Amino acid sequence: DGMNMCMFMQNTLTRLMRLPLISVALVQGKAFGGGAELTTACDFRLMTPGSEIRFVHKHMGLVPGWGGAARLVRIVGSGAALQLLGGAARVDPERALSLGLSEDTLPSSDETTALGEARAWLSQYTEGPATVIRALKKVVTAGRELPLEAALRTEKDIFGTVWGGPANLQALIRRPKHK
């Protein structure tokens, strides 16, 4: 049963990570174990004051099984990942920022206010034509997951889908020169 859950959750979180949209995990309170693994499947992580991320698997006689360890290594590096996993360390917002595990600490701990702050933070990356945002996510995913030559081919192919498209033509009309 554990192996079936492991395979199901690896597949689910990998599908989340590969969605053609930009995702953010908003950590309010405690993201322990599977919750910590879930945060690694998102493009960005934001935390509220007093929140924490903790990979507690070692205390349960386990290792992450949902892909959290592999993704954590890619986010913070192998040394920091080994410390977080091996020490089951509490990661508060300040430490998460210093490790690169979190992009920002929001000002509010209030659930509703923090959600609005997270939306505002994320909008800097998601505003614009949906076709371009999806294309950006695809090229970043390819760059992260594929060998260089394959990632370059994917980038070229995706570039071809937006070159001369409506968003490109509108941008050329608005800004013929970069300033």
TrEMBL record:
Its EC number is 4.1.1.94. Residues 1-29 form the signal peptide. It is an enzyme of class 4 (lyase). One of its GO terms (cellular component) is cytosol. PROSITE patterns: ENOYL_COA_HYDRATASE. The keyword Signal applies. Keywords: Cytoplasm, Lyase, Signal. SUPFAM superfamilies: ClpP/crotonase. One of its GO terms (biological process) is fatty acid beta-oxidation. It is found in: Cytoplasm, Cytosol. GO terms for molecular function: methyl/ethyl malonyl-CoA decarboxylase activity. Pfam families: ECH_1. It catalyses: (2R)-ethylmalonyl-CoA + H(+) = butanoyl-CoA + CO2; (2S)-ethylmalonyl-CoA + H(+) = butanoyl-CoA + CO2; (S)-methylmalonyl-CoA + H(+) = propanoyl-CoA + CO2. Belongs to the enoyl-CoA hydratase/isomerase family. Decarboxylates ethylmalonyl-CoA, a potentially toxic metabolite, to form butyryl-CoA, suggesting it might be involved in metabolite proofreading. Acts preferentially on (S)-ethylmalonyl-CoA but also has some activity on the (R)-isomer. Also has methylmalonyl-CoA decarboxylase activity at lower level. This is Ethylmalonyl-CoA decarboxylase.
